[in-house]
Structure formats: C-alpha cells, structure tokens
Amino acid sequence: MTQPNDVLSTEVLRHGAYICLTAPPDARRHLAGAAVPALATRLGLRNEFDPGTGHPPDAVAFLRRVGATPGTIADDELLRADAIVHVASSRAPVVAEFCAEATRLLAPAIKPRVLAGVVRPKDYTSAAMNQFAYAHAVPQQPGAAAPNAFLLPMSKTAAWWSKDWMERHTYFLPRYEHGRMVSQGHALASAAGIACLMRRTYKHGTSPAPAGSYDFVTYFECADADVPTFHEVCAALRDVARNPEWEFVREGPCWQGRRVATWTELFDELPGEPDRLGPGMSGVPTVRVR
User: Fold this and answer.
1) Cβ(65)–Cβ(266) under 8 Å?
2) Assigned architecture for domain 11-285
3) pLDDT for 178-204, tens place per residue?
4) For the segment 20-43, what is each residue's pLDDT rounded down to a tens digit?
5) 33: alpha, beta or left? (left if phi > 0; alpha if psi -120 to 50)
6) 3-state SS, one letter per residue, for 118-177
7) pTM for the full model?
C-alpha cells in the first residue's frame, strides 16, 4: 500500500544560495573592487572563514576555484566557475537581496549562476540514526583549519520520486537477507566522513525540482588530510552494490575550491596556470580554468 508523502515536513529552517562566478581575466581588477563586502556588512552576514561556534546564523563565504569534474548532468556555468560565494540566513529576504544586489554589482562583466535551496527538518532520521550520523558530526571549522570546499549538486530520477516515502527510507539503511548484510545503504557507505567532513545540504523548494534545477545542492569542507576521505565516501556512495540509492541519482559537476577570507582574494592572479584539462579529482578529467 502506497504511503502518502504529506507526512514529510514542509518547514523551512534556513535559506541559502551558492553564487557561481566565471570571471573574464580582463575584468578581474574591476570585479575585485565591487562593493560585495559592503553588501555583506549591511545585511549583517558573518564570514564563514571565521565561523565562531558552528554555522553562523547569517553567513557569507568566499570560495576560490581549484578544479571541477563533469557529472552526468551538464552544467558548464558551474563546471567553469572561477569562484563561488555562499550566502545563508533563516530569513529568505536576506538571501534574495544579497543575490539580487550582487548580480547588479557584477553586471555586465558577470552574469552569476545561482544555486539556491532551503534546509528542512530531517525526514528519515530516527533518534538512533541522529546519534549515529549527526551527534558526532564535525561542525564548521575556521578556513585555515579546513580550507577545502566541495560543491556537488544532484537530482534524483523520476523513478525515485514515484516511490513513497517509506520505500525511499529503506535506501538509507543497510539491507539484510537471512541475517546477512547484502548492501550498506547510504548511512554506512558514507560513515567514514561523519567525523571529518563538514556537510551541508540545501533542498529545492519543491520535490522534485523543476527542469533546469537540482533537487539537492550538497557541500562539504575538510582539512587537507581528509580530502582522500571525501573521495572515498563519494566512491562508496556511487557504488550501487554498496549503496543501491545511487541508481536513482544524477550528479552535476563536482566543483572543488579553497576557502579564502576576503572577496578580493577570489580574483588574485595565479601565475603560470594556463587553461587546461588536467588529472581529475576522482580519476577523470578535471577542468581547470583561470
């Protein structure tokens, strides 16, 4: 018997957006002087490079490109983004104003690609699973301690959304047959990252998201020593034998950056780094463009 999805929460706890910027080299000096820091100050946003204790309630962050790996969903604006600015608040008008005003300040040199979403209460998390997956999760660290940032948007297939919430729930747990584990499910496949990967997920305002938008925008931060763990967790989740949920997942590009303290650092020149295709972050070609 199909279970209706109206038991799932529609409450919004937080609003957020990632503003993806591709900066022409001849416009960088002009862009560095844009009044984006003044905008963040006026809106009362705290810089996540120095987050204090946990996620700042009203936040801004600056991420500078390292590279990007194409996904099954083509998204050149994200794939080739030189920088990403994150903004978040419990107040939707704050995020909307920042995105709109930043877009105006950067025109006509840049037309940003904005990936926006919301945080909702956890739908599939029991008290025991909360203890397993979240009670010991790493909080946001200062940028100097956890300089690596990964942005990975994704959507689920129509076959996933045709399932009721109880069936979807089963994919997050291990599966057993006659007392033997036959697949780990999402929870165990990703367990290695709990203690070292700061993770954040924005959901689209509607599920499924409309064409051209992502269902989920996931984001991770970690120390240099934990970058291999990020890739190990991604590999485990993508292995449908270990995690059957991923049969229903379609990923956009995986964008990697470094957290920087200021807006102007996004546009500093890196000498001797030409446009090229280099070794991928996950063993496939990575697009590195400056």
Assistant:
1) no
2) 2-Layer Sandwich (3.30)
3) 999 999 999 999 999 999 999 999 999
4) 999 999 999 999 999 999 999 999
5) alpha
6) EECCCCCCCHHHHHHHCCCCCCCCCCCCCCEEEEEEEEECHHHHCCCHHHHHHCCCCEEE
7) 0.89
